[in-house]
Amino acid sequence: MVLPLGLLTAAQGHPMLVELKDGETLNGHLVSCDTWMNLTLKEVVQTSPEGDKFTRLPEVYVKGNNIKYLRMPDEIIDLVKDQQQGQQSGYRGRGGNRGDRGGDRGRGGRGGRGRGRGGRVHKAYTYMAHWILKPSHSQREILAHDNKKTSIPPVLQLHYKIHERLSQLKTEEGAYTQVAEVVEYLVKVRQERPALVHYDALIAANADAENGSAEVVRTLLEEMKGLGIGADSGLYHTVLQVLAIHPDYLLRTQILEEMKERWYGLSPAGWHNLVIGLLRDRQYEMAMDKFEQMQADQIEIKPWLYDILFFRLCELDELDEALRLLKSRYHKPPLAMHMYYHLLDSFASSFHYEGTSYIWRLLVETSEMNPADGTCTAVLNCAARHADPNLATSAIGLLSKRSTVLGVHHYEALLEAYVGVQDIKTSFRILNIMTKAGLTPDANSTRPIYLYLTTSSFHALDGWKTLKSLKEDGYTIPIAAVNVVLEAVIFTNNLSHSPDYAINYYKELHTICDAGPNIETFNTLLRGLAHNKRGSKPKAMFLASEIQALNLKPDELTYDRLILICLQPENADFDDCFRYLEEMMLVGKDKVDATGRRGWWMRPGTAVALVKRCVECGDERTWQLMEDMRERGMVNEYTRLKVWTDLYWPKGGGRASLQDGKGEIIEMRSNEDKSTFGTAALGVS
């Protein structure tokens, strides 16, 4: 017999024989059916049309238009028919189900005129249908629809509507409470026997992010086993869907093992939920293994799964894996553009050169992508780090097209990229461009050039030749370019061995740099003289006179290095050190030093050197210097010097006590007028 849809719905969970139009037969348990009579059977034995081949299948999906004949046990059909007849008699309102007066509010037996239980159940059905169906369906429409003359009894129509609505609710977001209420109604009010369809709906409802729980799913599965209700492939997939939102490693492992035992395979949606659940559970390596298995099995992967993987890989700084995954999608539908923006920003910010250059050349240089200024700056820095001047030029060119005001940091990154490929001439040109743009490069801007020039003394000397060549080509040479070459020459060619290089370059400076030297130029030259052990003081005095002639203002470092030069052993008279110290304190009394203290003073190393020289000569000014060191916070140096002076102070020499304050304080001021730097420098013979 061909069973009506209502009977099929009521027969779920029972054995059934299905004959297909090609003659094959399927013998298994009915799991579910839909509006188009499409059936799902589990634990199926498939028989060939000739009846000579048998195949056992865990689950089969049968389309309704392919079904020729359906058969199920007669006792099941009789049971369903009896239920229909009882419900129909109650629906017509003619008498109770029992003959006693008080049983069902009826007035007699089956032929009486009292209201039967069936009438009450139908009211509950009608109310439930009105609550479950979409709001657009009024109660009058529901009753009118139920009263139509169809081959399916009205109660079974309502039964089907409730189950259909239940299947819809379990896929809707935020329907957790509604699903629970519908299942409770079906089991308690309609007294349906708990079946797979009820548990499947309850488990699916736990996919709700706020109300769902993996622990509830575990309890429901245990309850099913206690009732002897077997799980099918659909229920296992529903559990995986819940675990994608509420991860539970042990439950997931249990589900996968049970599916494997029953030969249930994962559907594409199941694979997606499995990978997402592993990612949420921080099982990243396992998630990537499953994802690669999906690719190997040629399972269609949804774009949103790629997005989630990319976001998580970038968050974990697994950029090599992200790039590999990105390249694997090259011949597939492209990613959404927002994903490319995120990947480029992540690659560039982390200085991942391969990923940055891949996306930049694939999309930005082809004008398919227009990254933000911040991303372009990150790309520029990445190119500088990995010495790719072409990428750096492309990034800074894109910024220039937008009329973005380029700052020092943009040019410094571009300069570093060219230094990385040993293109020093272009690096010096960039300093020229900075000057024309109204920016002033300083020692920080030229550090990449300095690091390259100091790798060899020949590089340092070639640097000066490069500046001369650029000047001949009509470029304006900034003083920062001159200073970095002088600094490199001093570092690679010690003045004791090459006494004329730095000074001679200084004398040629006006021929290549129209701006002339600044105080940093002299500080660089004085640094070289301070490290030289012989013949430095006359050259230092020459430089001091140049500072005065050019009307430059010396800074704290200038005085400090002059003091170091005057402290050299070849200078028997080191009184000039105190003259420069006094002038230093006078000029910088209202200024803040490098440590944030008001007033200039010597650096700790210079102060220690001066104190030791005073101790060696038995100079009483030692104690005032040490007191000044203590007051200026040089506690460590003061403590070590205190022990050292006790050991090495000349015997029989006069001594002022620092502890009790006794003794005469030596006046360090000279009778000479030292109100200007030049006077002090020129007064030294």
Automatic annotation (TrEMBL):
Keywords of the record: mRNA processing, mRNA splicing, Repeat, Spliceosome
Listed Basic and acidic residues bias regions: 97-107
BP terms from Gene Ontology: mRNA splicing, via spliceosome; nuclear-transcribed mRNA catabolic process
Keyword check for Chaperone: no
Region of interest (Disordered), ranges: 82-119
Pfam families: LSM (PF01423), TPR_24 (PF23276)
Positions of the Sm domain: 3-76
One GO term describing the cellular component: spliceosomal complex
Ranges of Basic residues composition bias in the record: 108-119
Gene Ontology MF terms in the entry: RNA binding
Statement: the UniProt record of this protein carries the keyword Transmembrane: no
Descriptive protein name: Sm domain-containing protein
